[in-house]
Amino acid sequence: MRQYLKYLKGDSVVWIISVLMLTFSLVTVYSFVPILIKIEGGSPFNYLYKHFIYVLLAFLSMYWVHTRNPKYVFKLAKFIYVIAVLLLIFTMFFGLKVNDAGRWIRIPFINLTFQSSDFAKLALIIYLSRLLDAKKAVLNQWKEGVLPLMLPIVIVCGLIVKDNFSTAAILFSISLALLFVGRVQLKKIGVIIASVVFALFLVIIIHKAIPSLNLLPRYQTWENRWLNHDGESVITNAQALNARLAIHNGSLLGQGVGDGELKEFIPEAYADFYYASFVEEFGLISAFFLILLYLILLFRVFKIGLNTDNLFQTYVCVGIGMLILSQASVNMLVCTGVFPVTGQNMPLLAMGGSALIMVSVSIGLVQSIGRSNKSQLEDINKF
Fold it and tell me: Which of 262-295 are b and which e, b meaning 16 or more Cβ less than 10 Å from the residue's Cβ?
């Protein structure tokens, strides 16, 4: 193991957990795709091969990013943000629609899809981290400090919320948490929350009063999911119920790899309902171990961020750590019935191209920061 880790700089624990999860995802995706085969056809090997390509691209992306100097990310932060906004705008008008939600861009020639919000999440965290560093002396002022921070948050979350409320809500919450870490006053954060809630309430009123505008095409879905909690239809109720039954069926030790029965009746068993399928086949003990791995990953990412004297790098690590944990937590809470059904998959484990690659790029960036800090420390120790 050590002979391979010497080529991977940064935090060895983060590398071990990341590679372990990426490798393990091959097993679970192969096991969890029967429902996809029923709907779209094909064979498990086809989906396994496709996922293997994504895992390979994800690892190579993680490795390449971790070899770069994080100062280049700092310099390119605004450019990355602008690209993300342009992609979101393009997706809004020309995106591929699935279940009335236009979230995907089809990449020409290779016939693969890319979810622009996956890129936008990381782009916003990077750009907001740079702004927090640049505005640290004027964060007590609205005009010079807080409003320039809120503008990119509102733009990105506003472009995402139309078709993906859960992602917009998670990203907005993480952004507010970063503002808190950056020492923006709680009173100002409270005013921001109240203003956004009021604005959203106003848009909902306009949407209901003038339906022809179609401001929120998925509003009925959101309303039913929150009010009914188990979903907007009998079908979705069955999805949520089957997910909870799968967890119950898993018991302590699980049914065994490939032996889960309810995964064949849970749409997105390999993504949005990954945790339920995992518990059914591997059991609650393994589920607690999975939660522990995510918590260790969060701790190590935070530790890398706190070990640097560069505020930008600290904010980036904190933001990425919260993003990974929040996505995993929402997936678990949806599967257990605590949260209404929504589309958040398990980072590093679920099947999905852009999500898998972007979370790997995020971890690669964290490792780049850790690698840079270790190099600086080694240089200091030489004198």
Answer: bbebbbbbbbbbbbbbbbbbbbeebbeebeebbe
Could you give the 3-state DSSP secondary structure of residue 273?
A: coil
Two tokens at 281? 């086949």
Structural domain of residue 209, as residue ranges?
2-373
Question: How sure is the predictor about 123, in pLDDT bands with cuts at 50, 70 and 90?
Answer: very high
Comparing CA positions, the residue from 287, 297, 276 lying closest to residue 347 is: 297
Q: Is residue 278 over pLDDT 90?
A: yes
Answer yes or no: are the C-beta atoms of 350 and 25 closer than 8 Å: yes
Q: For the ranges 110-124, 126-140, 298-312, which has the lowest average pLDDT?
A: 110-124
* CA separation, residue 364 to residues 57, 257, 291 (Å): 12, 30, 21
CA distance 195 to 199: 6
- Beta-ladder partners of 106: 113
**Distance from C-alpha of 192 to C-alpha of 44, rounded to nearest angstrom:** 48
Look at residue 68 and tell me if it is in a domain.
yes
Q: Which SS3 state, helix, strand or coil, does residue 112 take?
A: strand
Question: Confidence class of residue 380 from pLDDT cuts 50, 70 and 90?
Answer: very low
Residue 281 domain flag: yes
Phi and psi of 229, rounded to 5°? 65, -35
Residue 29, in any domain of the structure: yes
How many distinct structural domains can be found in the chain?
Answer: 1
- Structure-block tokens of residue 180: 């808190």
Closest CA relative to residue 44, chosen from 372, 263, 364, 254:
263
Let me know if residue 26 belongs to a domain.
yes
Q: Which two tokens stand for residue 204?
A: 């909902």
- Contact between 283 and 260 under an 8 Å Cβ cutoff? The reply is no
Give the residue, 243 or 227, on which the prediction is more confident.
243
- Beta-carbon contacts of 78 under 8 Å, excluding residues fewer than 6 positions away, are 127, 130
**Dihedral sign of CA atoms 85, 75, 299, 184 in order:** negative
CB 328 within 8 A of CB 355: no
| Those residues with Cβ within 8 angstroms of residue 17's Cβ, 6 or more apart along the chain or in another chain | 293, 296, 297, 300
